[in-house]
Amino acid sequence: MKILIVDDEEAIHEQLKACIPTEALGWEIVGEAYHGEEACRLVEEHQPDIVITDIKMPLLDGLSFMEWMKKRAFTGKVIVLSGYGDFQYSRPAFLLDAFDYLLKPLQEVELVRTLTKAVEELALVSNRKIEQINEKAVLNQGIVLMRDELLSQIVAGRIKEEFDILVRAEQLLLALPESKFYTIVIHLIDLDEHIQDRYRGDRSIFYFAARNILEECLQQQTGAVFRNLHKSNEFVVICEAKGLFFDVMKMGRSIHLSLTTCLRVRALIGISSPKQRIDSLASAYIEGAQVMETIRIGALETIIRYGDDPIQDEKASDQKEWKELQGLLECLLDTGTLDSETTLLRKLEEALHQQSIANMSLQNFKHAVTLILDKIENASAHRSEQMPLWLQETRVGVHEFELKQVQRLLRNIMDQLLKNVTNNHKAKSGKQLIYSIKQYVEIHYQTVNLEGVAQRFYLNKNYFCSLFKSLTGENFSEYLTKVRMEQAKRLLVGSGLTAYEIAELVGYQDQRYFSKVFRKATGQLPKQYRAQQQTRN
Predict the structure, then answer these.
(1) How far is the C-alpha of 481 from the C-alpha of 33, rounded, in Å?
(2) Are 239 and 387 part of one and the same domain?
(3) What CATH number is associated with residue 499?
(4) Is the pLDDT of residue 86 over 50?
């Protein structure tokens, strides 16, 4: 508690300092003045809680000093000292909001009692202010949440009519653009981990800081900032394009710089094309969200506007690692073989490597991971009790672009998948593998060959030939020829195609060689076989 003493008598100063129990109660005398002008300066400098002042003083008397404090909305308590007990002297002081009036010579007990009452009243006022601030904060949070809910519903297409949008916005005192505007979609990457590391898991603090930064970036432009409640890591800025020199890309870069500098968070930003009517907000949001997903995750330029040419990036990934991973996984799920276990885990790490992901767009990353999840989810025989939960969490992580969470979960899923396969593959791996290869050949007989099958199923070529021979009693090349010849027979009988056309359809570029192979398999040339079958029919 800070106290200021104002009196033109040195003896009063000494008496007050001796009577006030500053050390016992933790109070502090922050200043002493001997006239009103000096007191004004000390009030501005120290902002005391209690002022003890005389009335009669040189230069500026006590009443004028009190009038000065009242004009400046002084919130502390003023205790007046005077040697005059007549009401005519005390009345002006109380009209100037004096807390109490003490007569000289001072009584120590009376002084301490009056100071205690002043302190208690200040505490009550302070508590009421805190309660009012808390109530206001709760109300503000409620209004902010209602605005977020309204705008989230609008961008989701649940509120479509312009009249409904404007009426509901007006009810929430929400100023929406009345002319051309842009929608800026801001997606924050790996937000869960960032909040855990830097904000001890407190999302509300982060959301508050991010909202303030975005509102500052909006500056004098009419519009709104809201958190998309359908996604945990997305903010949206609606900004009216005011003025001839308004540059939405400049605003996007300002937003990106502020977020990365102040919050140290990774942000990708997609900007819609300009819209004229507020009922176009949903389509504007879709444009911003879609174009944002085309940005390469590790790109330096992470802001893009709908309608602009896609950012040309020589580092863009061809997703070779992910395609190979999908092939390995499909082979494992189809055949149950463990010959490719080490290769599968290595390929998973290559796909999940930071550089591999950095070279992908968000769109491609979502697609690649979703294909993996779909393959595993459809292979019910390889699922465990934990698997459905991991698959769902991974889908959520992909949707929210929680890349590190997705990486962790995919490793868990693959480890569990291999354990499940290990427990039941041994008795059936060879037969199931050959069965799967035969199915594959019957579909792709036109283009398939020994090297292609070995590569497709991640098998050593010599091992595959030996396994196929031991389980089927024939060489793979003999089986492939048999499949092709059966297809050629059907085409010769059931179509009017020439022998040359049929040769190409069953995988032979040389019609003469096809005829030679066909004759060896059937004892007849293709045209002879067709004529014989037509005669029989």
Answers:
(1) 112
(2) no
(3) 1.10.10.60
(4) no
